[in-house]
Design brief:
Chain A is mostly helical and 192 residues long. Chain A is 74% helix and 0% strand. Chain B is mainly alpha-helical. Classes of the chains: A mainly alpha (192), B mainly alpha (153). At the A-B interface, helix 2, helix 3, helix 7 and helix 10 of A face helix 1, helix 3, helix 4, helix 5 and helix 6 of B.
């Protein structure tokens, strides 16, 4: 049975364990993925996922029934992530898979495009995904958070500014610099 | 980001805005005029459009989910049970009482339906009186039949 957000919240507020189990089933992986995209560290993302749901257990009785859960969970995830980044500004990518990668330049994007097959398309996705993840990991953390909120959560500049509690002009600057940096990094790796 | 007229100069910020559809109609028309003569900006716009598309597609987002997530899930369920148990003891945050109040509410609601209360009282009265009625009929029959087969012998 597919539970709606309202049913999940109602069951949780009555103390029913299956309600909270559904909440985890529906959102735990999504929260982890978002935390990972912010932090680019598997351990930090796991830790943050646990913190998010501990906060949920505390705050759920005050959550208004009928409201969608994801924007609320995204806000908690983003806030906890920003707290972490602000308390530890040196936190950069700890992901061993990308921190020391050599760019695997043996196959270029142009080579794969020239192949023009489904296999090449799939391989292109993987290679390019790695390039993009590596470029994202190299961004300053707050710039990365802004990019994720803009391009993966489809939030407006104004919503990002509110969520990150920063001036709109700062968000525009973060996005401009981050996207220019990403384009330059990717152009360099494609040409490699 | 610098503010420049979209039609007058090369500007990476404007290329980004154009690529994500952030220019007004008039600004976009001016910028498109600039693009017809500027290879560098055309390349920049193409690069940003591709970047934005790739940032949003599911393939990029599909990092493997670690097995530890299941252990975290089990821990969280245990914490949930504790929180609910604490609530039951201390009258805390979770509204377990309204769940029972809901059942009582249904009972109270039934009483408001016309005839339901009267039907209930009739059923109770019938149940209480039936043994007496049966006894009364039985004793009347016994009187009419007389002492019975054994007595006639």
């Amino acid at each position: 049975m597919d539970w709606t957000d309202s049913e999940v919240v109602a069951a949780c507020r009555r103390g029913r364990p299956e309600g909270f189990a559904q909440l985890l089933l529906r959102y735990q992986e999504r929260v982890y993925r978002r935390a990972y995209s912010f932090l680019h560290s598997r351990e930090e993302a796991l830790d943050l996922t646990q913190d998010v749901f501990l906060r949920v257990i505390e705050a759920l009785p005050r959550f208004e029934e009928g409201r969608p859960l994801w924007p609320w969970l995204r806000r908690i995830t983003t806030n906890l992530c920003l707290n972490r980044l602000r308390s530890n500004p040196t936190l950069v990518s700890l992901d061993e898979a990308f921190a020391s990668g050599d760019g695997s330049g043996a196959v270029t994007r142009a080579d794969l495009l020239a192949a023009g097959t489904d296999v090449a398309e799939s391989a292109l996705g993987n290679v390019f995904g790695d390039d993009l993840r590596r470029a994202m990991a190299a961004l300053p953390p707050l710039h990365r958070v802004a990019v994720v909120l803009r391009h993966q959560e489809d939030l407006s500049y104004e919503d990002i500014a509110r969520l990150m509690d920063l001036p709109l002009g700062t968000i525009k600057t973060y996005l401009f610099r981050a996207r220019r940096s990403l384009r330059q990094s990717l152009a360099a790796s494609w040409e490699g | 980001m610098t503010k420049q007229s979209p039609g007058t100069a090369c500007d990476d910020g404007i290329a980004q805005l154009y690529a994500e559809g952030g220019l007004t109609g008039a600004e976009a028309l001016l910028y498109e005029r600039h693009l017809t003569v500027c290879t560098a900006c055309r390349r920049a716009v193409a690069g940003y459009k591709e970047l934005f598309w790739d940032l949003g597609r599911p393939g990029y987002r599909s990092e493997p989910v670690p097995d530890e997530l299941q252990r975290i899930s089990d821990d969280l369920m245990a914490r949930w049970d504790e929180a609910v148990a604490d609530n039951a003891e201390g009258g805390g945050a979770f509204s377990l009482v309204p769940a029972l109040a809901g059942v009582r509410g249904v009972a109270r609601g039934l009483q408001l339906i016309p005839g339901v209360s009267a039907a209930g009282r009739l059923a109770l009265e019938t149940a209480r009186r039936t043994p007496k009625a049966v006894l009364s009929v039985a004793s009347r029959l016994a009187r009419r039949i007389g002492p019975g087969v054994r007595g006639r012998r």
